[in-house]
Amino acid sequence: IIRVPFSDQEILSLWSHLEIPFADMVLIGIYSGWRPQELAVLKIADIDFENMTFIGGLKTDAGKNRTVPIHPQIMDLVRRNYNQATSMHSEYLFNDPDGQQGTHLTYDKYRNRFKKVMSRLNMTHKPHDTRHTFITKAKESNINEYVLKLIVGHEIQDITEKVYTHRTIEDLRTAINMITWPEIPGE
Questions:
Q1: Exposed / middle / buried, residue 175 (Cβ in 10 Å: 0-12, 13-18, 19+)
Q2: I need a surface site. Which of 35, 72, 73, 123 has the fewest CB within 10 A?
Q3: What confidence tier does 59 reach under pLDDT thresholds 50, 70, 90?
Q4: What distance in Å separates the CA atoms of residue 116 and residue 122, rounded to the nearest whole number?
Q5: According to the model, what pLDDT value does residue 184 have?
Q6: 3-state secondary structure the chain
Q7: Residue 36 and residue 88 in contact, taking contact as beta carbons nearer than 8 Å
Q8: Is the pLDDT of residue 97 over 80?
Q9: pLDDT more than 70, % of the chain
Q10: Domains along the chain?
Q11: Average pLDDT across the chain, whole number
Q12: What are phi and psi of 67, to 5 degrees?
């Protein structure tokens, strides 16, 4: 499977088409680095607006129950989904009010919504391309490799880093805010 990060133009196109259902979900994935299946099942209880963080993760010990700062550019998108979920009495951040088999997303539902967004915008991406975009942008912005691994839930092999180095949420937030994203018109 070939993975292709979203270009800056494609990211700007997503920002310009927030009226397309789930375009905001794709952007949240791009700006946070969650695996698609992790993003699909984020719960509103795991959103901390005071500290601007998500808590979630699946797959590996390093990936589970990790804290990811919410990038300021997507804060309103997260808040909008949170408010919709609350009004729907859903425990999940992402919901489809028109879903035929329940409103919250599974990975299959996520993938189908993702495909619809790509089709509407004439883009050819796969769901994991959001994560590839985040990691590529982080590397281009010279984010500390170990901090990046903490954010995306990759195991750290280096014993000094894994055992003796203590990273704070502020370290993670500083890294997230260092990533260079295209400038959104009007901001």
A1: buried
A2: 72
A3: low
A4: 10
A5: 86
A6: CCCCCCCHHHHHHHHHCCCCCCHHHHHHHHHHCCCHHHHHCCEHHHEECCCCEEEECCCCCCCCCEEEECCHHHHHHHHHHHHHHHHCCCCECCECCCCECECECCHHHHHHHHHHHHHHCCCCCCCCHHHHHHHHHHHHCCCCHHHHHHHHCCCCCCHHHHHHCCCCHHHHHHHHHHCCCCCCCCC
A7: no
A8: no
A9: 86
A10: 8-178 (1.10.443.10)
A11: 87
A12: -100, 130
Using the predicted structure, report yes or no on whether residue 123 has a pLDDT greater than 60. Answer: yes
Q: pTM for the whole thing?
A: 0.90
Checking if the pLDDT of 53 tops 80, the result is yes
Instruction: Return the pLDDT at 106.
Output: 80
Q: Which two tokens stand for residue 160?
A: 């000094």
Q: Which two tokens stand for residue 43?
A: 């719960």
Go through the chain and tell me how many residues it has. 187
Cross-strand pairs, 68: 54
pLDDT at site 51: 92
User: CA 129, CA 26: separation in Å to the nearest integer?
Assistant: 10
Backbone angles phi, psi at 142, to 5 degrees: 60, 40
